[in-house]
């Protein structure tokens, strides 16, 4: 249940100038996010959680890994996101014969100017969609993953910065695993959140048939903001206050995944950093200028489940990583005393 | 008010309530007042010193010093020497008085000082245990000591009420502690400290039992069933008074032998001794150990009985036994007189033993052991210390046993059986005559009961005594004098008033006299019809109502009383007891809701924003518990959402606002504006209370105990 009416925050922060300025930034971000959300929802029907998580990844400068069966709108979500912030979008279809240079770009010799010219690869865009990333060779995968981490590409000794904001939305098909190269743990760790779309509910699916049958909704989608605004707001997120009790709680959650008997490899410190950034963003998206345990709790699954390795026993018992993370979170008491 | 202040006040009340247990032990009103004053001094000084001094150890020291100074001041006020070398004497005097006087003890300065000192130490112990050592569960040890002393020393006299008061006081202490602790518990490992408290309680209960058991054993004089351990004793020749009886009843010339004045408004049977042993030849004396000093309390009799005085002048009558009403508490007589602690008869040990009573003038204080009719008809047979009084030889004629059973078949209790026995012997079946052969052996009794049914007091008394034994009621035959005739302001007793009568032993009543001999005297009123009014005959009805206060005991054998004695009678006490119980029950009934209200007021009064918000949240949690619902688990937001779902819209919005404030107070940099908090809490509280109605929820707020095992 959403308790806090939207206007309440202003009401209770009146009279505090510092808080008021934070509050106004928070409100601006919330408003922008709401616009993006509405725009994306015209394309993706009935998936508010997936849309919120992708917004969190966008404003937290993180990357998104979407694991799901084909045809549920993974690519559509990424494209809609890019379009609504009037950013550039590139789609790279990962195949076994894809080369690293297809991603980063190549220097080719221009016979007219007699110079080498850099021809940017697919990664040079605000939103990069890596479709079926597990089908490319590890070498090609790592080219993308390096770009994700560094926010730049170096080709022939020349460094080319990537645009800001820069977000990779990679998709993986968990069903057709034949002839794929599953992402190694180290590389999965670079994705801030992993989500799965799931099938739409019946009413949404019916509505989708109506809308998409008439024309291309993506073409009708109008940008609601620009990339500069998004980049600026992403800076705001970093200033959000986090209470010491919340940090303790977060670390306790990480430790719980490490000590769980079902887990062979627990969440890394980097996972904690990213989870905290995501939690800050979620707080702002919900109109708060402070993080609460609910943020951590809600994001622990998407932020941690793809990073941990289950123990052989848990795998044999067909336990799900999401479920294991959830029970680890439940085992940590909420910091409810000041 | 701080938690330790509350606990201090609760302890003060609990200690004061625990003193009620001493009611059967001492009748010294001043002792209670002084003990109460010391309790107040100890607890109040504890509260003040803990507030003023930073360290707990310093506070404890100052508190002990204050208590000591107050004791010294009390001793000076009492006029007792404060020289420390006088303490052994004081203790010895107090111990002697305790051992020698019967319960309830008359006032005595030494006893008072010692008892008040003991209470002061108990108060200090209780204060240290429960506040300084934070273990209020252990306060049961000092609180229970007065009750357990009374219970061990006077098992038959201790009633239920002091236990109730003790429980009320203990609950007060625990509640005062719980109010404070409920906040702390959630931080600590809840299980640990709760089990710790239980363990502490159990250990202190054991210690209290041990201490009180020892104390009870070492205050033997308080127990009516125990004799004085240090008194001169020695062999004394005794004459069988039943021989005198036979001889005197057949005196050709009746003459006055005794005259007496009594503080009571009727005359009294003057007993010389009682014959406990019975064999085929009749009733006999047994060898006895004679003692000096204060007489013990009458065996088996309840405490708090009225007393009266009697002044006796013996003319020309020779006996080694001192004629006294039963039960003498103290006597003053010239010569060397000793007493038998079992029968309470008084015997001369002087040189002119057989003629010791001749021309003697003496006075005595007597405990009026007369029961009421209702008490007697409820009574069951007791077990006296002298087992001879219950023994019936194996070869005793079964016909007599059968008669006894037959005529008492309608009775339900032993008391009623005794009354039926007396009624039968007093019926027209029997006739009084001094003609028959004397004696109370098998042959004499069989002849008397089955054949000629004619005899005098010896046969009547012996018959009733043996038939009572046949029915399981311990009995003995008392020898002495009838009350005599009232002449002006005094009574006169003649030689032919010499008499024998049975005494039967009942639990809770002690030895009760009966009068089975027709013609010579009317039966005691407590054996008459249930609604019989007291007999008009002064010479034969020794029964004023027990509840009338008698004259003050004036002449004590050993130490004269230094105070006006406070005689607390049963009637006063039962009235007070009922009133006290009523007030106590009311207080107990209202206590939980008062504690709950106090908690609410304290929480909502917090000024600092974070404390105010935290208090408001605790208050809402308790309100939800009080209404009979569970407080959800999880974050403030989750709890707020779940509770708000059950509430009407505006209360739900208020709950949401409080939850956001709680969240901010815990996780944000500043709490924000808490101005509307009070109103929001009230709105939610009212709405929650609406959902859980029922007067019992108000009387017994669930939150008071729910918090004990709740882990946040």
TrEMBL record, chain A:
Residue ranges occupied by any ATPase AAA-3 domain in the UniProt entry: 63-193
Transmembrane segments: none
Entry keyword set: ATP-binding, Nucleotide-binding
Pfam families: AAA_3 (PF07726), AAA_lid_2 (PF17863)
UniProt xrefs under InterPro entries: ATPase_AAA-3 (IPR011703), CbbQ/NirQ/NorQ/GpvN (IPR050764), ChlI/MoxR_AAA_lid (IPR041628), P-loop_NTPase (IPR027417)
Origin superkingdom: Bacteria
Coiled coil: none
Domain ChlI/MoxR AAA lid: 256-326
Molecular functions per Gene Ontology: ATP binding; ATP hydrolysis activity
Record has Thylakoid as a keyword: no
Similarity remark: Belongs to the MoxR family.
UniProt-listed PANTHER family: METHANOL DEHYDROGENASE REGULATOR, MOXR FAMILY PROTEIN
Protein name: Putative MoxR-like ATPase
Protein encoded by which gene: yeaC
TrEMBL record, chain B:
InterPro entries per record: Bact_TGase-like (IPR052901), Papain-like_cys_pep_sf (IPR038765), TgpA_N (IPR021878), Transglutaminase-like (IPR002931)
Keyword Repeat: no
Region (Disordered): 523-566
Domain Transglutaminase-like: 449-518
Gene3D superfamilies linked: 3.10.620.30
Pfam families: TgpA_N (PF11992), Transglut_core (PF01841)
Residues spanning the membrane: 31-49, 61-80, 109-126, 138-154, 160-176, 197-218, 575-595
Keywords (A to Z) from UniProt: Membrane, Transmembrane, Transmembrane helix
Keyword Hydrolase: no
Name of this protein: Transglutaminase-like superfamily protein
Species for this entry: Micropruina glycogenica
């Amino acid at each position: 249940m959403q308790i806090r009416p939207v206007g309440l925050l202003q009401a209770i922060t009146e009279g505090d100038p510092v808080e008021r300025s934070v509050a106004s930034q928070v409100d601006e971000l919330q408003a922008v996010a709401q616009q993006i959300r509405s725009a994306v929802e015209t394309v993706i029907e009935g998936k508010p959680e997936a849309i919120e998580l992708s917004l969190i990844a966008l404003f937290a400068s993180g990357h998104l890994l979407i694991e799901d069966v084909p045809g549920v709108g993974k690519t559509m979500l990424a494209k809609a996101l890019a379009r609504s912030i009037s950013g550039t979008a590139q789609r790279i279809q990962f195949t076994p014969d894809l080369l690293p240079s297809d991603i980063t770009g190549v220097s080719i010799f221009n016979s007219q100017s007699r110079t080498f010219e850099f021809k940017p690869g697919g990664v040079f865009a605000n939103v990069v969609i890596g479709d079926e990333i597990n089908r490319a060779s590890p070498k090609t995968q790592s080219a993308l993953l390096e770009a994700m981490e560094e926010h730049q590409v170096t080709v022939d000794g020349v460094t080319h910065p990537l645009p800001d904001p820069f977000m990779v939305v990679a998709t993986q098909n968990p069903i057709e695993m034949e002839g794929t190269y599953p992402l190694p743990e180290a590389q999965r760790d670079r994705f801030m959140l992993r989500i799965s779309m799931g099938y739409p509910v019946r009413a949404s699916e019916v509505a989708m048939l109506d809308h998409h049958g008439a024309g291309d909704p993506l073409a009708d989608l109008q940008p609601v903001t620009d990339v500069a605004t998004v980049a600026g707001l992403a800076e705001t997120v970093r200033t959000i206050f986090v209470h010491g009790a919340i940090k303790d709680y977060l670390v306790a959650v990480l430790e719980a995944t490490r000590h769980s008997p079902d887990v062979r490899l627990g969440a890394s410190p980097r996972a904690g950093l990213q989870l905290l950034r995501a939690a800050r963003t979620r707080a702002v998206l919900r109109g708060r200028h402070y993080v609460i345990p609910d943020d951590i709790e809600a994001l622990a699954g998407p932020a941690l489940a793809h990073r941990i390795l289950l123990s052989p026993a848990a795998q044999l018992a067909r336990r799900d990583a999401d479920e294991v993370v959830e029970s680890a979170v439940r085992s940590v008491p909420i910091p409810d005393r000041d | 008010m701080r938690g330790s202040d509350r606990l201090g006040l609760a302890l003060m009340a609990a200690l004061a309530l625990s003193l009620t247990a001493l009611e059967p032990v001492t009748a010294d009103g001043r002792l209670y007042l002084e003990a109460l004053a010391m309790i107040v001094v100890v607890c109040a000084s504890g509260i003040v010193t803990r507030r003023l001094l930073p360290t707990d150890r310093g506070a404890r020291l100052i508190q002990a010093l204050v208590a000591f100074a107050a004791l010294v001041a009390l001793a000076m006020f009492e006029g007792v020497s404060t020289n420390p070398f006088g303490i052994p004497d004081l203790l010895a005097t107090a111990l002697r008085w305790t051992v020698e006087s019967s319960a309830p003890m008359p006032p005595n300065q030494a006893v008072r000082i010692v008892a008040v000192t003991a209470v002061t130490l108990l108060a200090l112990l209780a204060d240290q245990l429960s506040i300084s050592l934070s273990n209020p569960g252990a306060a049961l040890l000092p609180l229970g000591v007065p009750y357990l002393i009374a219970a061990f020393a006077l098992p038959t006299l201790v009633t239920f009420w002091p236990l109730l008061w003790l429980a009320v006081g203990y609950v007060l202490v625990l509640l005062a502690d719980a109010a404070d602790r409920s906040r702390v518990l959630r931080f600590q490992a809840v299980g640990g400290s709760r089990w710790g408290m239980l363990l502490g309680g159990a250990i202190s209960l054991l210690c209290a039992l041990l201490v009180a058991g020892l104390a009870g054993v070492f205050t033997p004089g308080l127990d009516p069933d125990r004799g004085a351990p240090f008194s001169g004793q020695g062999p004394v020749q005794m004459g069988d008074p039943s021989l005198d009886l036979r001889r005197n009843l057949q005196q050709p010339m009746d003459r006055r032998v005794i005259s007496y004045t009594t503080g009571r408004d009727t005359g009294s049977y003057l007993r010389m001794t009682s014959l406990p042993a019975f064999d085929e030849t009749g009733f006999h004396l047994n060898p006895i150990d004679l003692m000096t000093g204060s007489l013990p309390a009458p065996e088996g009799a309840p405490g708090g009985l009225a007393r009266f005085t009697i002044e006796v002048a013996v003319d020309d009558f020779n006996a080694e036994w001192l004629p006294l009403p039963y039960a003498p508490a103290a006597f003053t007589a010239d010569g060397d007189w000793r007493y038998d602690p079992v029968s309470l008869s008084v015997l001369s040990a002087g040189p002119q033993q057989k003629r010791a009573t001749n021309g003697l003038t003496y006075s005595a204080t007597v405990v009026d052991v007369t029961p009421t009719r209702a008490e007697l008809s409820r009574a069951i047979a007791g077990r006296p210390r002298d087992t001879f009084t219950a023994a019936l030889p194996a070869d005793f004629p079964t016909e007599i046993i059968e008669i006894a059973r037959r005529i008492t078949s309608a009775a339900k209790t032993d008391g009623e059986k005794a009354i039926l026995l007396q009624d039968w012997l007093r019926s027209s079946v029997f006739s009084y005559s001094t003609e028959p052969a004397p004696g109370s052996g098998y042959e004499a009794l069989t002849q008397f009961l089955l054949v000629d049914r004619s005899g005098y007091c010896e046969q009547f008394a012996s018959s009733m005594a043996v038939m009572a034994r046949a029915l399981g009621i311990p009995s003995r035959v008392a020898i002495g004098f009838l009350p005599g005739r009232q002449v002006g302001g005094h009574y006169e007793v003649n030689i032919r008033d010499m008499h024998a009568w049975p005494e039967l032993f009942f639990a809770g009543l002690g030895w009760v006299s009966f009068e089975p001999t027709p013609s010579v005297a009317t039966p005691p009123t407590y054996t008459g019809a249930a609604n019989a009014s007291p007999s008009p005959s002064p010479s034969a009805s020794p029964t004023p109502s027990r509840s009338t206060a008698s004259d003050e005991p004036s002449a004590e054998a050993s130490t004269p009383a230094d105070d006006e004695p406070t005689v607390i009678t049963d009637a006063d006490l039962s009235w007070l007891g009922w009133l006290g119980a009523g007030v106590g029950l009311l207080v107990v009934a209202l206590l939980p809701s008062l504690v709950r209200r106090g908690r609410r007021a304290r929480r909502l009064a917090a000024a600092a924003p974070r404390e105010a918000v935290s208090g408001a949240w605790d208050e809402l949690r308790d309100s939800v518990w009080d209404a009979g619902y569970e407080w959800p688990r999880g974050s403030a937001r989750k709890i707020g959402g779940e509770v708000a779902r059950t509430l009407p819209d505006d209360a739900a919005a208020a709950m949401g606002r409080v939850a956001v404030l709680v969240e901010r107070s815990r996780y944000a940099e500043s709490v924000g504006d808490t101005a509307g908090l009070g109103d929001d809490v009230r709105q939610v509280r009212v709405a929650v209370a609406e959902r859980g109605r029922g007067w019992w929820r108000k009387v017994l707020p669930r939150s008071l105990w729910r918090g004990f095992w709740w882990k946040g």
